[in-house]
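I'll show one example:
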Amino acid sequence: MTSTTYTVRGMTCGHCVNAVTEEIEQLDGVSEVSIELIEGGDSPVTVTSAAELDRAAVSAAVDEAGYELID
């Protein structure tokens, strides 16, 4: 198992958190997604998975939810 923390810009509420969580959970190997919502700021998103995830795949999932993966 591996955990990686990403930063997502643009989330403002619980619905945003749910949207990002649902998209990332669809990636192969993901077992847990934990988000610390910072309203109107950049929120840390910790993803636990069986193996390291491709950053482009995580970025695409976040983009599909309507938000931006940064840094």
The two ends are 23 Å apart (CA to CA). The chain has a mean pLDDT of 96. The longest helix spans residues 14-25.
